[in-house]
Design goal:
By secondary structure, this protein is mainly β. The protein is built from two helices and 26 strands. The strands form seven sheets. The chain has a four-stranded antiparallel β-sheet with strand order 1-26-25-24, with no helix packed on it. A hairpin with a 5-residue loop joins β2 and β3 (about 50-55). It starts with about 30 loop residues before the first strand and ends with a strand.
Length: about 350
């Protein structure tokens, strides 16, 4: 069945700007674009608003978090003040460098601030935090700050999933799972430096046929990065960006008295995930993931069957996809491999940055 291609004046397009040449049967619809913000995360709220975010180190010239307007304008969220942090200023109520936005089952928004304005650098003091907002009122519900004991030299707080009174986050820099108690605000590091939280030395991240290299020109390795929660909250799935993914029952992870050594005995290998930009899991336990090597979106069904949903040259490093619960998946395309930090200071990102929507097959 053929899909319609977005018209030239899709949300975010500018009058007179043509869409790139695409196949007429492409399932991808362009819903937003930007010449400023290499957004790597997207969330829709119950009012139909589209929220996007972008880390500072990507070359972002827009806000850290924004609502995309009907003509592609970026409205800082929740306010301009939250998006006005500058080096040396107080990060207590300002975003330093946001890496993820997550919508909880109750509709609240969870914004993950890495606190690291420079790729690979230690978070600024008091910069790493999670900000919980109520999009119905746009009010900040609570700010969870990470104590010094939870931060390491190269900590990069990456993404978040919510499970009752606990939140799980990945430290992609050092390789660990952080368990945040949402009642007390305490944070516990788990699997610090263990093999299943760290990238394997020989694994390579390849995008458009090129090995992605870090600032030191060695192959880039990203530790604990993707994570998902089973629909019933019983299992947490996690692993390095280059795979594989592991699983552990959350009842063990939530037990603060269990040592890391004992906890490790309950970790099981789950899925040989290839290097991915991002993942999303639906209410039936199907895992959607964006494969970096071939610009594709794939699905691992709950029964383990793997299928390719779409492959398209424009899907260059799709980061965190978003499932809207209405049968659509949103795919932000920040082209992270093109950031200047990975190319000796010269960006290879091709603007405009696009956000696609796609109707998922049954």
């Amino acid at each position: 069945m053929a899909f319609l291609v977005a018209a030239n004046l899709a949300i975010g397009a500018r009058p007179g700007q043509a869409e790139p040449m695409v196949a007429e049967d492409s399932p991808l619809v362009t819903v937003a674009r930007s010449d400023q913000m290499p957004w790597n995360a997207v969330v829709l709220d119950g009012r139909g608003r589209t929220f996007v975010s972008s880390p500072r180190w990507t070359g972002n010239r827009g806000p850290q978090v924004a609502i995309v307007g009907p003509r592609g304008d970026l409205v800082p969220y929740p306010s301009a003040q939250w998006n006005n942090w500058t080096p040396g200023s107080d990060p207590a109520q300002a975003f330093v460098s946001v890496n993820a936005i997550h919508r909880g089952t109750d509709g609240d928004l969870w914004i993950v601030d890495t606190g690291s304005p420079v790729f690979g650098a230690r978070p600024v003091k008091n910069g790493a935090k999670v900000v919980r907002l109520d999009p119905r009122t746009d009010a900040v519900v609570r700010i969870y700050r990470f104590p010094a004991s939870a931060i390491r030299e190269h900590t990069y707080i990456d993404d978040i999933r919510i499970n009752g009174t606990r939140a799980y986050l990945t430290d992609a820099g050092e390789g660990a799972i952080l368990v945040l108690d949402l009642k007390t605000g305490t944070v516990q590091r788990r699997f610090d430096g263990r093999g299943f939280a760290r990238a394997r030395p020989g694994d390579l991240i390849v995008v458009e046929g090129r090995v992605v290299r870090g600032p030191d020109d060695t192959p880039l390795h990203v530790n604990a990065d993707p994570l998902e929660l089973s629909p019933d909250g019983k299992y947490l799935y996690f692993g390095p960006l280059s795979g594989p993914m592991y699983q552990i029952e959350t009842r063990y992870l939530d037990d603060a008295e269990t040592s890391d050594a004992d906890l490790a005995r309950h970790v099981r290998r789950w899925f040989d995930l290839p290097p991915v930009g991002g993942t999303a899991m639906d209410d039936e336990g199907n895992l959607y993931y964006t494969v970096l090597a071939d610009n594709s979106l794939k699905r691992r069904s709950a029964n383990g069957t793997i299928s390719t949903i779409v492959r398209d040259a424009r899907l260059r490093w799709v980061d965190a996809p978003f499932l809207d619960g209405l049968g659509n998946i949103y795919l932000p395309v920040p082209q992270l491999d093109g950031a200047a930090v990975f190319h000796h200071g010269k960006s290879t990102v091709r603007y405009p940055i696009l956000l696609f929507r796609m109707k998922l097959p049954a």
